[in-house]
Amino acid sequence: MAQAEAYEDISPFVPPEPVCFVNHDRAKAIMAEDNLDALFASEDANLYYLSGHAPDSVLAHFYEPWACAIYPRHDGIPPTLITGEYDMTYCLTHPTWMEARYYGTEWTAISTMLKKVHGGLGIGTELHKPLQNLYESTLPKRQSTYFDAVVDFIETEMPKGNLRIGFDDLRMGGEVQEKIGSRLEVVDGKRAFRRIRLVKTEPEIEILKQGMVVNENAVRAAGAAVKEGHSCMEMVNAYRDAVQRGGGKWLGERGMLFGAGPDGAFVLDHDYTERMTFERGQGVILDCICLYKLYHADSARTACVGEPTNYQKMMHEVVKEAIAAGESNLKAGTHSSDLERMGMEVFEKSDLPTEGATVIYHPIGLNVFDFATPEDAASGWVMETNTMVNFEVFYRHPEHGGMHMEDTTRVTETGVERFTTLPHEIIVAG
User: Fold this and answer.
1) pLDDT of 162-186, one tens digit each?
2) Which structural domains are found in the chain, ordered by start?
3) The whole model's pTM is what?
4) What are the residues whose beta carbons fall under 8 Å from the beta carbon of 6, sequence distance 6 or more?
5) Is 20 helix (H, G, I), strand (E, B) or coil?
6) What does the alpha-carbon distance between residue 284 and residue 165 come to, in Å, rounded to a whole number?
7) Contact, 302 vs 404, CB < 8 A?
8) Nearest 5°: phi and psi at 413?
């Protein structure tokens, strides 16, 4: 086996720059409002938001608990990722902007291997010397278990008096409180996380844009697979394949929420829907949702098997006009309920019965409906600059089927930056 000196002969490994998604000013302000000393994330989305840490060990939920990120409100306390030695190489090739602390994972040979590498054994690959250095530099704060590492951070880094920490998993908070004692007040941190995450940072927006490209390409592939006499499943598979080729993951059973014909305007059992074959004249709803690097993409258009009927064309024009009415008035400071009202007014002035219309604004991000609070979901909210918002208009008719359109936009002070590139036209399929 080569010794440590051999590492010097290898081309140096240059890790990528760590990415930080956190809107620090907004986070600190909201934490101050809630009188929180820190936020504690152990669920996938919030862990990724705070730290950028999302290895397969986390996403596949190997063990619970596995990793967490602690984000203190006060200056001078290091924001910290805590994870197992198992993830050390991932943290080398995909570094976090936070301080990283590790606990032992002796149940796996990876910990033994790290000790061997630290001792100078192994073939001198480009990772071995940096891994040796990372192992050495993090040894002083190494703990035996996950909870030992969490307790050590709180006891050595956080203030000595009473603490109020928001946990995104209250059960996890309860277990930490048992070990820290009564000076720790555990509160539900999900509300704070959601409020912070409503306004997106540039790294988040870049991922959302990339994910939208993946999803829109898959929508196009699905539309091209709609053919008379062919099965709905062929369309579903075309969507799935395109999402996977783009590096995304479809959501739910199939990633597409609706089917074809009059019944396609309703949410149906997937097995039932996928056994159907397309018939000429049917409208086909393509409401497609996928994940890309944990962020959601949500796009909707409508296809028609053959040329659309006059009624389908009328439905489409009204839906298209409703989308335009909302988007033309969308800017920071406007209330979502006012924008939805503008969309509904288009239906009220049309020849379509208004009871078939659904007009919804929803933020999008690490959740597909990324509302800051349950109250916002129920009553709407005031738009803020750099919120990523989906505007969807759906019309359902028991005889003529559904007509759906959904766009993704970025809210600015003066209007919107429209990220959706799909045309506002019916997809005329074979």
Assistant:
1) 999 999 999 999 999 999 999 999 9
2) 4-197 (3.40.350.10), 202-429 (3.90.230.10)
3) 0.93
4) 123, 124
5) coil
6) 48
7) yes
8) -65, -25
